[in-house]
Specification:
This protein has 762 residues and is of the alpha/beta class. The protein has 27 helices and 21 strands. The chain has two domains: 387 residues, Alpha-Beta Barrel (TIM Barrel), CATH 3.20.20.210; 348 residues, TIM Barrel. The structure holds glutamine and zinc ion.
């Protein structure tokens, strides 16, 4: 049988099997690695990824996807898009690179933001008027040559495409887009022609911006860019790769003058397949068929994937099809090899990057050897494990009843609640509070690790946590805050903590993914029906409350944040999963209330993150997200004060949904959005309790009394004074104890001064 189908990989996780990459990076930053050794260790990691993909017989192995920090930053540096503040002092390129990512004496780090709707963050390229268009180094060419020289691999170079690169950059206005593109595209042409001359037969150009809602002008710009490249370099083969959703302007995009188009058939809600069926696919192009989920950790139902592949083959012949993951595997952990503690039942259903690469090969072989019995058997065996997992009892829907037996909205209006709560709580004007966590000092982390390893008994650990709570209740009394928290010392992470305690979740050992720079996260896995088992936060909160006459807020993570920061089962809708989480939280809320905790904060910092990429899908998401939050907080008595907290995102376009949460009090970060949020409230009346963060908790600097007074007064100009709260931007777990105490003392002092001034002025 002639081999026709080929496999193509879009990108491999950088972090290494056991986060070696992170360790090398951090050791270098600390000065514990010489530059030479740093490069050597990184080279080793990079080559090992190529080797693994070669072992899995992948036809097109990507190069240029590896990075020391972030691929958008790599691209910016390659094209000399370096902010002026870093261009002034000539540094070694590696130092400039890390200075842009992390800040240095030369200046503040570049802005960092979320990569589409993932939890990966990229460094935002900053154009400025003095930008000199030039190529510093063609790092993709180096990677291509390295693969050939060291391993004899004819790799497929990967570039971040010019359209998306510009879309993700700042420092120019919309009208300047064409002029900037005119300067940038020749640089791309140079890089691409060098790759072509070096022998690259196919070059992947990532254009994920094509899945967002584009205007006609956008499409025009895009078309101009690719026409221009094709005119200059008619002989190169570009594969225009999209991912994370479907493309809207299907016919225009697929007719661009490129060799191939890569589409996501997993996260497209069926739209890409539909478009191909309706409009067909150009006869001279390759189709990169993303049929394996590049963003989630479930084993592929190879039977279904193969059916899809067969369907595609009716339109695009096998020799023009590339079997691909839906996106780069950057968003999934590396290998299942170290998951030694998970139940076999669950393990049956999992595939990390290494396993996904194998799946590509499996699908290809199944297609290319349709009559080979051994191939068929391997394929069937694989499907068997998938089926076993799918049939597991924990996957069967249980709590689907729509009759919840309790209200899904609060029984009293905000106005009614407000009156009742004022009477009950008798808080001062401008109440002061914090967001939840207090410093996770070395001893807190060490003690938790010892306890987890079984080296410390439960009692001893409890005593330790209680000691911390006691200490911080005393500190809060001394500082003079009005509403207290217990400090979250028992929590490693605000989602994993609940994941460990709720049914339907598993916590992995090695399921790390890169979040930003060297920071990796280990999202819990929602594999089955989520339900409440027993109280999760009552013990610590009630203990804290027993030590003080001041109210202590019960701290919970909201259902949408738990969803967005987990790997989520894909056999039922996210909405359904979120509803299950919300119902479980209802029971936790009730348990807290029963224990006398009557201020409850449910954090939703990740609510904005789940916003779909396409505008026309956004409202539906926001609606069910808000519903889930309301469901989780609905059944409390009217005097119980429900708080929520959000941070580090654009709020202005979701302000209506924030209002709709119907929380009695919300605390929102402000420092990083530089007053933009305050602007928002000028035009948007907010009528419920609101605390605008008065200082940035990410900075070790102690905020001055004056500065915080200014922030408070600014906010009082636009918000109803009687509903205003004073608090930091976010939790304080990353600060030292000294910094925290000093900052909070100043915050209370600032509040007192404003209270005085306000009294006089009224
Ligand atoms: N309550 C959490 C804390 O203080 C909130 C964290 C967050 O918003 N990311 O740490
Ligand atoms: Zn926060």
């Amino acid at each position: 049988m002639k081999m026709v189908l080929r496999t193509s990989q879009l990108g491999y996780p950088r972090i290494g099997e056991q986060r070696e990459w992170k360790r090398t990076l951090e050791a270098y930053w600390k000065g514990e690695r010489s530059k030479e050794r740093f490069y050597e260790e990184m080279r080793h990691i990079r080559l090992s990824h190529l080797q693994k993909q070669r072992d899995a017989q992948i036809d097109y192995i990507p190069v240029g996807d590896f990075s020391f920090y972030d691929h958008v930053l790599d691209t910016a540096l390659m094209f000399n898009v370096i902010p002026e503040r870093f261009a002034q002092t000539p540094l070694d390129p590696l130092d400039t690179y890390f200075a842009m990512a992390r800040g240095s004496d030369a200046g503040e780090a570049c802005e960092m933001t979320k990569w589409f709707d993932t939890n990966y963050h990229y460094i935002v390229p900053e154009f400025h008027h003095g930008w000199v268009p030039k190529i510093t180094t063609n790092y993709v060419l180096k990677a291509y040559e390295e693969a050939k020289k060291e391993l004899g691999i004819e790799a497929k170079p990967v570039l971040l495409g010019p359209f998306t690169f510009l879309k993700l950059s700042k420092g120019y206005t919309d009208t300047e887009f064409p002029q900037l593109a005119e300067k940038l595209v020749p640089l791309y042409e140079h890089v691409i022609s060098e790759l072509h001359e070096a022998g690259a037969s196919l070059i992947q150009v990532d254009e994920p911006s094509l899945v967002t809602s584009l205007s006609e002008t956008d499409v025009e710009h895009l078309t101009n860019i690719y026409r221009e490249i094709a005119e200059r370099l008619p002989e190169v083969n570009l594969l225009l790769q999209t991912y994370f959703d479907s493309i809207d302007h299907f016919e225009q995009v697929v007719s661009l003058p490129v060799k191939g188009i890569g589409l996501d058939f997993v996260h497209d809600k069926g739209a890409n397949l539909q478009a191909i069926k309706t409009s067909g696919f150009p006869e001279d192009k390759l189709l990169g068929a993303g049929i394996i989920d590049g963003r989630n950790i479930w084993k592929t139902d190879v039977h279904d994937a193969f059916t899809l592949l067969t369907e595609l083959q009716e339109i695009v012949p096998a020799e023009r099809l590339l079997v691909q993951p839906s996106s780069s595997l950057l968003h999934v952990p590396v290998t299942l090899k170290y998951e030694t503690k998970l139940d076999q039942e669950l393990l049956n259903g999992l595939a990390y990057a290494e396993e996904k690469v194998y799946e590509l090969h499996l699908l290809k072989t199944r297609g290319n050897y349709p009559t080979d019995e051994a191939v068929k058997q391997t394929f069937a065996d694989y499907q068997q494990t998938v089926d076993t997992f799918k049939e597991a009892s924990f996957r069967q829907a249980t709590n689907d009843s729509t009759d919840l037996g309790f209200p899904t909205h609060r029984t009293h209006t905000y106005e009614e609640r407000k009156a009742l709560q004022e009477k009950k709580w008798r808080l001062p004007f401008l109440p002061t509070t914090t967001i939840g966590s207090f410093p996770q000092t070395r001893d807190v982390k060490r003690t938790r690790t010892e306890w987890r390893r079984g080296e410390l008994a439960d009692d001893a650990y409890d005593t330790f946590v209680k000691g911390k709570i006691e200490k911080w209740i005393t500190i809060q009394e001394e500082v003079g805050l009005d509403v207290f928290v217990h400090g979250e010392f028992e929590r490693n992470d605000m989602v994993e903590y609940f994941g460990e305690k709720l049914n339907g979740f598993a916590v992995t050992q090695n399921g790390w993914v890169q979040s930003y720079g060297s920071r990796c996260v280990k999202p819990p896995v929602i594999y089955g029906n989520v339900s409440f088992e027993k109280p999760m936060t009552v013990k610590e909160t009630a203990f804290a409350q027993s030590l003080t006459a001041k109210p202590v807020k019960g701290m919970l993570t909201g259902p949408v944040t738990i969803l967005n920061w987990s790997f989520v089962r894909d056999d039922i809708s996210n909405r359904k999963v979120t509803e299950q989480i919300a119902k479980a939280l209802v029971e936790e809320v009730a348990a807290l209330e029963q224990a006398g905790i009557e201020m409850i904060q449910m954090d939703e910092p990740a609510l904005r993150e789940g916003l779909p990429l396409k505008k026309h899908h956004q409202q539906a998401y926001l609606d069910w997200a808000v519903e889930a939050f309301r469901l989780a907080t609905a059944q409390v008595t009217p005097t119980t004060q429900v708080h929520t907290h959000m941070c580090y995102c654009d709020f202005h376009d979701i302000i209506d949904s924030i209002k709709a949460l119907d929380a009695d009090v919300i605390s929102i970060e402000t420092s990083r959005s530089h007053g933009e949020l305050i602007e928002t409230f000028k035009t948007n009346v907010y009528d419920k309790g609101i605390g605008l963060g008065v200082y940035d908790i990410h900075s070790p600097q102690i905020p001055s009394i004056e500065k915080m007074m200014t922030v408070i007064k600014q906010a009082l100009n636009v918000l109803p004074a009687q509903a205003f709260w004073v608090n930091p931007d976010c939790g304080l777990k990353t600060r030292t104890e000294e910094q925290t105490i000093a900052a909070l003392k100043n915050m209370v002092a600032a509040t007192k001064k404003v209270r005085e001034e306000w009294k006089v002025s009224q």
